[in-house]
Amino acid sequence: MIQVRVLGAAGGVTGSAYLVETSQTKVLVDLGMFQGRDARSTNGNGERVDVNASLGAIDPRALAAVVLTHAHLDHTGRLPMLTRAGYNGPIFATPASGDLTEAVLRDSAGIQEQDTQRENRKRERAGLDPLEPIYTKQDAEAVYQLIKDVPYAKEAQVAPGVKIRYYEAGHILGSASIAMSVSDAGVTKKIVFSGDIGPRDAPILRDPEPPSEADLVFLESTYGDKEHPGTSASVERLIRIVRDTIFNKQRVIIPAFAIGRTQLLLYHLICAHEAGELADVPVYLDSPAAKRATEVYMKHTNLHDVEATRLARCQRLVDGLKSLRLIETANESRALNESWDPCVIIAGSGMCEGGRIVHHLRHNLWRRGTAVVLVGYMAEGTLGRKLADGAEQVYIFNDPIAVRADIHKLDGFSAHAGRSELLAWPEKMMRGRPRLVLTHGEDGPRAALAAGLKDRYGVTAELPMRGDVIHLAP
Question: How many CB atoms lie within 10 A of CB 346?
Fold first, then answer.
């Protein structure tokens, strides 16, 4: 028996998780946090429940290993729930992914604790029992102790009958596609998990390198229905927005993922400043996770592309802007919103579903002249998607907030491959006519990519939903 159970990011773009099962072992690939629409469900009584509060079909005691594609929250965010439930097996990742996962989970655990404290103050006033966070900083700390480094291109045995090899995915530092060899009862199958695939020629990162053989391919489909505009056009528009907004003595608010997007934005701001296109405007990086992630980017310079290497080995991601301020504490973050001084604020989370960006939006969305720049994918149901779709009013911490700020959506900074790059990615593997399974995409983009793959390769891709099982061998 060889089968893969799809436990997330199926019909959506968050909560990535796959359970690879044989008669002798079980290996989990990613365990991401659900966000937006994907995070909400109802129980038998019609009450809304948080999907993240349960591990569902995953039994931590039955797992032999966990294998990570990369460190983003939608791929690692529920790992502390495994350790909380008693898991103490290995968690395999590239060295950079291991370092970045620590930064992401430390930040996420802090948010879980803070959000629960805020909710419990309301519950206490209402006479209700307090809630427990789904995990704590201690649970996250336990994850770090289990991470085992696996370099790119080196085969590693992760469980009985299961070997992996990492390939560059070009999405964020350390991101990888996984070529997994699974053997059971005399049968061996090659399963490829694309992870999140980055665009070619992106600054800082190396280009994606797909595996060449597979029996089964899980391919992401985030942008299966569209191409990205050129990066240069988005950079020019970003610099123009910053220049004009600061000139008018207003603020620029940028929600950005702590890993990847923040470093890319700093890179372009530094380049624009050095080219004389942007004055030394006040820039606040209000994300402890982004600060730690930037330090990891500087640590792993061997993974940078030629352009980033030329940028002083990436050291100037921190000191290239003299006016860059790294915000550490919650009090420092709150102080930003007690001032009306013009500035640029970069904060997480990228989809505006938690973290310090939510507070900055709460204090600034209603102010005319404020510029909110959305630079990443916004999943359905998230605050970021509502802003991108033109909402005139949103709710933050249950308070109605008028949207008077100017909302700008820039697609050229995406860390995901566009449609044509997704279509080309499996080309070498398609010589062996593998099965294609499309995940990590909403229904429209996934269906569009399936149609394109059918035209290009003559293969009908499978579109599983959460909980579906893909069988490979008896």
Answer: 27
What tens digit of pLDDT does each residue of 431-445 get? Answer: 999 999 999 999 999
Alpha-carbon distance of 467 to 404, in angstroms, equals 41
- Give domain 2-226+418-473's CATH number out of 1.10.150.130, 2.60.120.380, 2.60.120.260, 3.60.15.10: 3.60.15.10
Dihedral pair phi/psi, residue 8, rounded to 5°? -175, 170
Residue in 47, 137, 127, 15 with CA at minimum distance from that of residue 83: 137
Amino acid at 436: L
Residue 474 CA to residue 124 CA, distance in Å, equals: 54
C-alpha 351/C-alpha 359 separation (Å) is 13
What is the three-class DSSP state of 438?
strand
Task: Assess whether pLDDT exceeds 60 at residue 459.
Answer: yes
pLDDT above 80: residue 320: no
Q: What is the CATH number of domain 231-413?
A: 3.40.50.10890
55 Cβ neighbours under 8 A, 6+ residues apart: 78, 81, 82, 85
Q: How far is CA 354 from CA 32, 115, 223, 317, 360, in A?
A: 15, 9, 24, 25, 11
> Closest Cα to residue 190, out of 167, 208, 165, 173?
165
pTM: 0.90
Q: Rounded CA gap, 174 and 195, in Å?
A: 11
**pLDDT digit string, tens, across residues 22-69:** 999 999 999 999 998 888 765 655 556 788 989 999 999 999 999 999
User: Do residues 189 and 473 touch, judged by C-beta distance below 8 A?
Assistant: yes
